[in-house]
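FORM 7B: Structural annotation worksheet

SECTION A. Query
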Amino acid sequence: MLYILASLYCVFLVIANITANKIVDILGLKLPAGFLLYALTFLITDVISEVYGKEIAKKIVFLGLTTYPILYVYSYFVISLPGINELAKHVDVVLSTTPCILIASITAFILSQVHDVYTFHKLKKLTNGKHLWLRNNVSTIISQLIDTITFITLGLYALPIVMINRPIIDLSTLPFIIASQYIWKVIVALLDTPFCYLFVNVLKSRFHSSNQIY
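SECTION B. Predicted structure
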């Protein structure tokens, strides 16, 4: 089961980074299209932390980090290839912003995911292993704030100015998009609490030893 969770974690990260270029409107809130899958990566790390322990969770975070340079390098490779149709131009436009997204994502990823694992286990120790809902929500909500501010500011505004000479979003809309994305991430974090309990209980009840959990 750990391998399935790790695979989903990496897949969600890649899709979230590719789709982050598109800013969508959901109930009046503006946010990158990849917000939902990225928010779910925190659920996965919390489940892994609870069932498999801190060290395994840290290894999964590192595994996810390796997807970033692969996506970065391959995006440049695709852009360098000659296109033979009109669609190729649009693909190149999307991928040309990928380096900005990736650099910002790596920075936000390291800060937020490491914080999430650390805070989760700190709270677990303070509560003597009780109140899963507390550590799941607190660790995720704080980590998501760190991630949102870092990613939106760097990936959609600051780095595009330096690397492609134009921001993806205007400075005037920056605070609104940060607030919009964070609100949705908090909602997802609160809604995923029952699923966190479900996955943790299923894994712990189904397997009786750490050797079997894998």
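SECTION C. Observations
DSSP finds ten helices and two strands in the chain. The domain at 2-213 is CATH 1.10.1760 (Arp2/3 complex 21 kDa subunit ARPC3).

SECTION D. Sign-off
Analyst initials: ____
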